[in-house]
# Entry
Amino acid sequence: MLEIISLVCAVALCFWMPAETRKVLGGWKNPRFKGDHAAFLKGHRKQLSLMFGFGVAIGIAMAVIAAIEFAENDDPLRGAVKLGIAVVWAAVALVSHRLRARFDAAVAAGSIPVTTKPAI
# Structure
C-alpha cells in the first residue's frame, strides 16, 4: 500500500511542479504567503531544490531495495514494482532539476514580473 501512495505522489509531483513553476514565472505569488515577491521566488527555488533532493534520495533508496528484493525473493514482481517507483522518483528529480535551471535563467534574465497576478 505504501508503494502505491509513493508512486501516486511522485506522478502527481511530475505534473504539479511544472504547472506551479509556470505560474510563478508568469508573476503569480500565493496570496497566503506573508513576504514580498523576492522572498516568494527564493522560497520557490528552495522548494524545487528540496524536491530534487527527495527525488534523488528516494530513487536511490528504492533502487537499492529493489536490488535486495530481486536477490532474495522468488517473486520478481515485488522488485520490479520497487524499481518502477525508483524510476518515477528519479523522474521527479530530473523534472525539478530542469525546472530549477529554467527558473534560475528567468530570474537572471529578469523576465519574471514583480507585480502579483490574481489566482485563477
